[in-house]
Amino acid sequence: MGAQRSRRDTREEHTVDWSIQEIAKLAGTTSRTLRHYDDIGLLAPARIGSNGYRYYDDAALVRLQRIMLLRDLGLGLPAIGEVLDREESAPHALRSHLEWLRQEQDRLTRQIASVERTIGALEGGERLMAEQMFDGFDHTQYKEEVEERWGKDAYAKSDAWWRSMSADEKSAWQQRVAQLGSDWIAAFERGIDPAGDEAQALAQRHFDWLRGIPGTPGGGASGPTKQYFLGLAEMYVADERFGANYGGQAGAEFVRDAMTVYAERNL
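Above: the chain's sequence. Below: its structure in token form.
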């Protein structure tokens, strides 16, 4: 029996709980983060010992796993709390997430195999099989939706632009987008004013990002129109797929409010 783990065995119950230090180590996080989750009502310990340590039981571990899974999807802490509060069954929610993880696993497995085949062909001086090189790299999955929203020409231009990029250029672009999303979430979680300088600087970065995508309405030197920029801001709130990139519903509303202020001031 470890010094940190508390085991309470009786004839009536067999309970194992873990100290905050143990859980932080197992989950790859910090005690400070777990205390913060407790402070904001996201993850309460099962009990607090006489030594003042927080202890976590099985139910708390399941909830922490859900929190970490939702964080990986890009949701902010307030949005995660809303999701968990709406859930009636943790097993049901975990099964849904497991299905998504398996889909991602399949996609990544296909990508890995594709890259391995390419490396083998290059090193062996063999002919590259184009039909096998891009298995798992499907950037056309939203083709019909883009064409419906903004027309076939918009998709064709953006698709040609993406295909023209080198692997390094694509990676740099994806990192830029991911960083922008992370910065939006961080700003929202700190509770800054959507009309303040920091949020407006993010809105400017967002505008510049959209301006750099050929085929989108307003893509190019002039940048998005006011109508398109405001419409996109509202879509972030209306469509949960987009909202997930900005910390969920509340985060998407923060982004919308900042973009709206930017549009009214500058477009």
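The chain has a mean pLDDT of 75.
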